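Consider the following input, taken from an annotated entry for DUF2069 domain-containing protein (Paraburkholderia pallida).
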Amino acid sequence: MPADIAGRRPAALGAFVTLAALTLLCIAWEWRLAPLRPGGSALILKALPLAAALPGVLRRRLYTLQWASMLVLLYFAEGIVRGMTDPAPGNLLGWVEVALALGFFGCALAYVAPFKRAARRAKREGA
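Applying the prediction step yields:
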C-alpha cells in the first residue's frame, strides 16, 4: 500500500460528496426542478447507477472508484448538452452537473493514482 494514502483521504471524501451531490441533483432535476414532463419524468432513473456506486465510493473501493469515474463521464456529456440546449433553469442545472462530474472525476483520480503507480512499480520490480 502506498505511503501517501493517508494524505489521499480528502480526495476520497471529495469523491463521495460530489457523487452524492450529483445523485441528488439528478433526482431533484427530473422530479421537481426542471423535469422534461410536468410532474416528473422517467429520467429520474438516471440517478440509479450513481446511487449504486455510493456505498463503494464511501468505502474507498478502488474498483468502484474506477468504474464510477468512467460512468460519470456520461453525466458530464449530458450536462454539456443540456447546459447548451435546455431553456432556463435546465441550462444552469446542466452546468452544475458538469461541475459535479468534473469534481468527482478529479477526486477519484487523485485517490486512485497512487495505488495505480504502486501496482505498476510492483509489477516492474517483480518481473
